[in-house]
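Open question from group meeting: does this chain pack into something compact, or does most of it stay loose? Before anyone orders reagents, we agreed to write out a predicted structure and look at it together. Recording both the input and the output here so the notebook holds the full record.
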Amino acid sequence: MTNEELYEASQKYRERLDNSRREQDAKFDKNLLSLSAGSFGVSFAFIGQVVPMASATHIPFIVLSWACFAVSILSIVVSFRISSFIHRKLIEQENKNLALQYEGKPAEYKVKGVSVDIFNYTALTTFIGGIVCLLLFVVKNLA
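Structure tokens returned:
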């Protein structure tokens, strides 16, 4: 490969990484964050207007749902930050690799990072747990 071809390949790779990061941020994190925050808000409205806290039963369900929604929101924020950090490191490594390849040396693919999957799964799982607890609270208090 010529230096120009190496440069073009590097730029295309960087563009794919950036597009991947944008897609991830725009879809999963945004939607789950909106759903978690919205569910959190709906649960407060339910307590305030449908079932007053003084007459509510099965309080641990609503408290647990709030805890689940809070963990979901925090997991999404942490996931976003880690993903952004990893992508920056990948771009830095690609710049290094390009320089090495210009010098005729082999590329070094050494970027290692924390997988954001655990945070995404935690966010999704706790969101689902929050919904289940919220529904249990609603059913128990409207029955």
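Observations to bring back to the group:
The helical segments are 3-50, 59-102, 117-142.
The first helix runs from residue 3 to 50.
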